[in-house]
Write a structure and sequence with these properties.
mainly alpha, about 450 residues, two-stranded antiparallel sheet, single chain
């Protein structure tokens, strides 16, 4: 017993013919040297505790010939590495040797110890290598700075290797750690974090796993799928990979008892899958529910706004071919096709802009009277001001009332005036060409290059 600390050390050397040694039973056939407890400097077992003041005693154990003592020293140093790494760093080469020795029983502990010391020395690349060698001893769920930093570096390195396979660097050694990180995120309910890492690392299997195991109900699954959709549209630059993500999102939507058909159709539209888009529209149109018909119209508006006219026209044609039914069904389909063609949107917007126009024509008249009649710059400026004020409303009353004044425009000014008239009649497809025909050249006999 040493002082009042109550620490008692024993050394058993020689043969033992059976019995219990140090609380552990030994076979009667044992011989030679049986090290059960070692004679160690006082306080080694307490190094990791509050009373530790130095790591020198534990460091000295690394030079002992007995493997059990070395193991004890490595584990003691591992527990105190964060506080005493400056003392441990001079023997880092000895620790690395033990970590790389396959015959050493605590090689993984030595790897973790080396990782901690190298981390504090700023050698993050080597620290990550030894942390990976520590396997499950590297606790990715810990809240220490060491765990946070290496976890983030491990994720970044894994994403880099997954997205740049041409470098020829294998990512298999990083995969178990990253998967443990993702599992921990899912277990703690951090689904978006797991989805973000999985999407960046091109791990669609982990995307599906995070949504299946991390979301408790349909609302959470829908929110997770919407998040994936936003990431695919804003963060993913590779078209082929974006297509894979959107196809997976659509598939997961369709697995629901009540799938979000609008989101599913939008996914199919972005991957230019007209057949599956038509299938969704046809299902909604044939439904007797009024809400389903309205949803089909909303999907058609979304397709018209977000996709090219070529795709919308293709969907419209396939929808017409797939429709065989009553006059009521044909009428519903025609409504959807009107929306897909853009006609309904143009008519609605034109009606809204013209009915809600609050432009004061008196401002234009005052400007016209105040301008120098010989100024071409002022003339053009007033024409442009009128176009901006009445853009998209199809209201051209000011120009009709001042045709003689408008005819003063020549050459480039005439071209600008014609463009401004087209701006006013934007979306007014039915009458725009008739209105613009006097200003458009016919054939090749035009007297002006404009």
């Amino acid at each position: 017993e040493h002082g009042n600390k109550g620490v008692l050390f024993f050394l058993f050397v020689g043969d033992w013919s059976g019995g219990v040694v140090g609380g552990r039973e030994k076979s009667a056939s044992g011989s030679g040297v049986e090290m059960v407890a070692a004679v160690m400097p006082v306080g080694v077992d307490r190094m990791a505790g509050v009373g530790a003041t130095s790591a020198a005693a534990a460091i000295s154990l690394l030079d002992e010939p007995e493997v059990d003592i070395q193991v004890h020293g490595v584990r003691s140093l591992d527990a105190m590495a964060d506080g005493y790494w400056p003392e441990i760093s001079p023997v880092i080469s000895r620790i690395q040797t033990l970590a790389e020795d396959p015959a050493f029983p605590a090689a993984k502990h030595a790897s973790l110890l080396a990782a901690k010391v190298l981390f504090h020395l700023g050698e993050l690349e080597e620290a990550l290598e030894y942390a990976l060698a520590a396997d499950s001893l590297f606790d990715v769920t810990a809240t220490t700075e060491f765990a946070h930093t290496l976890r983030a570096r491990c994720i970044d390195e894994y994403i880099l290797r997954r997205t740049a396979p041409e470098n020829g660097v294998d990512s298999d050694n990083l995969r178990p750690v990253v998967e443990r990180i993702l599992d921990d995120c899912v277990a703690r309910g951090e689904v978006k974090e797991a989805l973000g890492v999985a999407l960046e690392a091109h791990r669609l299997d982990r995307v599906e796993n995070a949504i299946a195991n991390g979301c408790k109900d349909r609302a959470e699954r829908q929110a997770a799928l919407n998040y994936c959709f936003q990431c695919a549209q804003t963060l993913v630059t590779a078209r082929a990979y974006r297509r894979e993500i959107l196809c997976l999102i659509a598939e997961l939507h369709l697995r629901e008892d009540q799938p979000d058909r609008a989101a599913t159709a939008l996914c199919f539209a972005f991957v230019q899958d007209a057949e599956k888009t038509v299938e969704i529209l046809r299902t909604l149109v044939e439904s007797p529910k009024e809400d389903d018909e309205l949803l089909a119209l909303q999907i058609a508006f979304d397709l018209c706004d977000n996709d090219t006219p070529v795709f919308s026209n293709k969907v419209s044609g396939l929808l017409q071919q797939a429709t065989n039914g009553s006059a009521e069904l044909v009428e519903k389909v025609d409504k959807v096709r009107d929306v897909l063609s853009g006609k309904a949107a143009r008519t609605t917007v034109l009606l809204f802009l013209s009915s809600k126009s609050r432009t004061d024509v008196y401002i234009l008249k005052k400007l016209q009277s105040a301008l120098d009649q010989r100024s071409s710059v002022g003339h053009n400026g007033l024409i442009f001001a009128n176009a901006v004020m009445y853009g998209g409303t199809a209201i051209d009353s000011f120009l009709r009332e001042n045709l003689e004044w408008l005819q003063r425009a020549t050459c480039w000014a005439m071209f600008s005036a014609t463009a401004c008239l087209g701006l006013i009649h934007a979306r007014n497809n039915s009458g725009a060409l008739n209105l613009l025909s006097p200003y458009l050249s016919e054939g090749s006999g035009s007297s002006t290059p404009y």
